Fold:
Amino acid sequence: MAFEGIGASVRRTEDQRFLSGRGNYTDDINRHGQLYAIIRRSDRPHARIVSIDTKAAAEMPGVVAVYTGTDLQADSVGGLPCGWLIKNKDGTPMAEPPHPVLAVGKVRHVGDPVAVVIAETRQQAKDAAEKLAIEWQDLPSISSTQDAIAPGAALVHDDVAGNVCYDWHLGDKEAVDAAFAKAARVVRLDLTNSRLIPNAMEPRAAIGDFDRATGEHTLFTTSQNPHVIRLLMGAFVLHIPESRLRVVAPDVGGGFGSKIYHYAEEAIVTWAAGKLARPVKWTAERTESFISDAHGRDHVTTAEMALDKDGNYLALRVQTLANMGAYLSTFATSIPTYLYATLLAGVYKTPAIYAEVKAVFTNTVPVDAYRGAGRPEAAYLLERLTDVIAHDTGLDRVALRRQNLIPANAFPYQTPVALQYDSGNYQATLEAALTAADWNGFPARRTAAAAKGKLRGIGISTYIEACGIAPSAVAGALGARAGLYEAANIRVHPTGSVSVFTGSHSHGQGHETTFAQLVADQLGIPFNQVEIVHGDTEKIPFGMGTYGSRSLAVGGSAMVKAMDKIIAKGKRIAAHLMEASVADIEFKNGSFSVAGTDKSKSFGEIALTAYVPHNYPIDELEPGLEENAFYDPKNFTFPAGCMVAEVEIDRDTGVPSVVSFVAVDDVGRLINPMIVEGQVHGGVAQGIGQALLESAAYDVSGQIVTGSFMDYTMPRSDDLPSFKTGNEVTLCTHNPLGVKGCGELGTIGSPPAIVNAVIDALSEYDVRHIDMPLSPQKIWSIIAAGPKRRAAE
Amino acid sequence: MYDFTYQKPASVADAVKLLGADPEAKALAGGMTLIPVLKQRLNKPSALVDLAGAGLAGISVAGGTVRIGAMTTHATVANSADVKKAIPALAKLAGGIGDKEVRHRGTIGGSLANDDPTADYPAAVLALGATVETNKRTINADDFFQGMFTTALESGELITAISFPVPEKAAYMKFPNPASRYALVGVFVAKGPAGVRVTVTGAGQNGVFRHRAMEAALQKSFSQAAIADIATPADGLNSDIHAGAEYRAHLVGVMARRAVAAAG
Ligand SMILES: Cc1cc2nc3c(=O)[nH]c(=O)nc-3n(C[C@H](O)[C@H](O)[C@H](O)COP(=O)(O)OP(=O)(O)OC[C@H]3O[C@@H](n4cnc5c(N)ncnc54)[C@H](O)[C@@H]3O)c2cc1C
Structure:
């Protein structure tokens, strides 16, 4: 058998069922007597609900119930909670307007749920939903981020003045002002970070079920974190104790953040199933996903860097307007603050940083974390700004980076924006990427491209991210309303096979493979003897779920802690069996041996003894071999790296193509290099999507213009080159595996590398900046305007 | 989708009869356009009359004409050795429609009947001076297209085949919409029995149109240089998030020059 432990590129076990159509997704589940829910959504951005007449709908064939926001209110159903409280500059709490499960009084975005129709079949529910008679009174709406704060702007929430959710800051303003005052030069850049629609392959779905005998509610849902949903929905919305509420997130077809949040539909089906004592299923259609899944990013930013005469970074000043959409989604408020501004040092030793972030409400779909979440916004800002500094000062882009990087001997490194980086070597990833990309050979490739009539450019980004938000106490002090640990339960069965119950949740990441490798490696048992169980609150002790590239660093560490307890107990059993002292027992490669002797017992023998305790230290030790652990990390982890992109632009049409892409990342220890590479590929594809193709658009009337794949440009395989990836390793210093995380780095590092490459390709046109996506039309309009006239000419 | 009845007649005559008897019934070809519309409940036919059994699929080449049955799929046209030999530009156009799944379901008849202003086939039909055959009559390409989603077809009239005269040379160049991959701008250039024709799809507010200025120039000299300075007016061209009218007008020129070069 080939090596299948830590470091082996084991093929993904779960792919067998996914690729053969045997996955078990929420919509694949059907319960006896199941009803179907159709949500009637607002087709207007902002309107008062004058009346809703449900009579005709309720009388349609097969209809079992029609509910509106007032019905939920009458039953004391609470609003959807926000999980992170941000404080304003003056210490007052942010504005936290109600987020009703079904709209009450007013709708605030196209897609806002207004009523639910529940019928025997989907068709019947759809037919009836069309019969709901709603009288609206349209209100002026806000569809862009900047418009939210314009004087006299319409109010999304009547009692949120100026549409401002919070006005927050981080960093040392005085130090920054002082540095700017003595700077040799200041370089300023205005940019936006575009709005994205996640579009996981599996649309969201939810089934509520209610057991009349036990009074237990079950929710099957497309979630990245079933325990979090149980907590939020049970405690804040439906008031059901954990003992009566089971949440199952079975196979989930992609999340990218969009399935972290507690959504209205989960509460609707759970509540309605209880009311009707029948299962109720809701499945989103793609069109519905576009207007009901939380969107991502959407920042408008001004950044300024103060430099000394040699190009050393002295201070960074940032002002950002962040769009929250119409309501606060579960973690929306934390993204442009603690996952963005705290990353503004990047990989640079900028001594002083001050960031101001204003979050605003608009009549658009709520915005929350999307793969990368805050960190792509920070990396994009820094890496664009760095290239603009090079442009404005004439300094070399790579030299400028080298000169400002945090040195490899400076760790642990305290940034001026709260984080302390534990380990890293940014020079190593930079140099490795430059070599892999043949940076120095670029001029020849540019000349060759020019001969074919193409403009060729090369771009670089040196990025950092922070994964596995931690520790809980610090997050709590900053406003988090949840802990950020992870739980694991390791159950060794009598024959020595092992079930691992993890609070992490896999929705494409390959946990069933990576975690099994980890456990097999540490316990010295065959890979196929390890089963990974996740996604069910009835089976798993507890869990915070999967997002922010936390699963291995936090969830994996919890497993290590639980395994340490298993091994410790195994040693006591082994000591008893071999009549040795516990201190003399060594555990290695799946066997317990007495040091300095040839006496040993296999892991399986110890397991069997634990469950058949005939010869057993029963007075000191309980039988059985099963352990729980909760792991609360001491710090974030900090993956970092360097990406280099090359593009060619067709002069006639402005079409950019990515012709080469290199990513060299430091994700700490690699458990499964193939899965890491896959995560990089997927992330880079999404990053290229943001840089060149994707962008959600609303028109001035508040209607979404990119409401389907006919207009919203998802990246496709033929938009992408073959990627070249590599790794440099510095170990995380504070978790037992030395791992850092790899799920998001592709979306973080790649957009600026691509944009920088396009701008470099356009160097003869003297372009400083273009906002994403860099569409052919935008590029062509620059080319059409003609080459710059140099002052000397 | 609303409920409808489904019928699959075994001949064109039976299909015409079924459609004639029920004005709310609709013909179903590959369903690539119709089914999504039904799913969105934007259309409520009483019945779908599936043309798959009516014997309308097939390609024949004779006497300088390529005749393609209405139910012939894009994939069949793209892969047909006969079409590749007689009018390679047409095979290439068919191979550039949508994705593989769409090409194996979607049909030439469905595409023309639907007359999407961003569809590819209309450019070829108009540029090659093809004839649309129906159960009642034959219609010249110039008379067939009457603005976006509007054709000369009468209610209940079915396309049975399209006849393409084989040109001396022809080429199609498509600039795909980055999201939908339909034509943002598609230009078909043909030199045939009826002279030079240049047609543009995707760009015009009224669907496919002939570019008379380019036709006149290419008639004199079939070369890229002949049309290099011909500007296309942006007036009357579409404008959307992917391309404004100015950019489309520019792309018409680029695609036309490339088509001329490809036609040789
Ligand atoms: C994802 C996707 C991508 C696509 N990309 C492209 C593209 O790049 N370029 C492009 O040109 N097209 C594209 N299409 C459209 C595709 O070519 C369709 O197949 C075509 O428009 C309709 O053909 P159909 O056979 O599917 O017709 P159907 O959808 O079955 O019918 C369309 C309409 O035509 C009528 N009809 C069908 N056959 C006849 C007939 N013989 N006589 C009279 N009326 C008839 C029907 O009643 C209906 O109203 C795309 C479609 C999809 C789904």
Q: What stands out?
A: Residues B 26-34, 51, 70, 97-98, 102, 105-107, 109-111, 113-114, 116, 119-121, 153, 158-159, 181-182 surround flavin-adenine dinucleotide (CB under 6 Å). The two ends of chain A are 71 Å apart (CA to CA). Chain A is about 25% helix and 25% strand. Confidence is low (pLDDT under 50) at residues 789-793 of chain A.
